[in-house]
């Protein structure tokens, strides 16, 4: 049924759990996985009274974000490969993660987006996470939400 599953991740514990379940799902479905990480863009500095000075340059920030993406994607690809699942990683810099997720699914020919329901706890955890909600609202590709 599904041939290529996109699994967006941020490297958190919740993502680890989602990745484990996505690998199991892909194995049952006979599908491959594309892990996706939306790298943060360099934050716009704030100026004025009480502004914090950040000594990090945009180049340093970009390098660190790319290294973090590589580390996360390598770890998840190793987990998938150990389970006998073909996988690859994809990453882009994006200020709007839900748009980057949908674009990655289209770019990689994914026929399913498998993502966590939320990253919050307590009362706010009762609602879907904002990025998940936005992907559900805007994607033409089916989305499986894992809780």
From TrEMBL:
| Domain of life (superkingdom) | Bacteria
The residue ranges of the UspA domain are 1-147
Matching entries from InterPro entries are given as: Rossmann-like_a/b/a_fold (IPR014729), Universal_stress_UspA (IPR006015), UspA (IPR006016)
The similarity annotation says:
Belongs to the universal stress protein A family.
Protein name (Swiss-Prot/TrEMBL): Universal stress protein UspA
Q: Which organism is it from?
A: Zoogloea ramigera
């Amino acid at each position: 049924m599904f041939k290529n599953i996109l699994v967006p991740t941020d490297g958190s514990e919740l993502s680890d759990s989602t990745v484990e379940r996505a690998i199991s799902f892909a194995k049952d479905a006979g599908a491959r996985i594309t892990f996706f990480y939306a790298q943060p863009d360099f934050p716009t500095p704030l100026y004025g009274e009480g502004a914090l000075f950040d000594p990090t340059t945009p180049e340093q920030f970009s390098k660190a974000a790319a290294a973090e993406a590589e580390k996360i994607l390598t770890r998840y690809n190793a987990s998938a490969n150990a389970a006998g699942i073909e996988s690859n990683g994809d990453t882009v810099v994006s200020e709007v993660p839900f748009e980057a997720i949908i674009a990655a699914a289209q770019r990689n020919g994914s026929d399913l987006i498998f993502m966590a329901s939320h990253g919050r706890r307590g009362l706010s955890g009762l609602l879907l996470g904002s990025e998940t909600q936005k992907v559900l609202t805007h994607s033409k590709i089916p989305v499986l939400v894992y809780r």
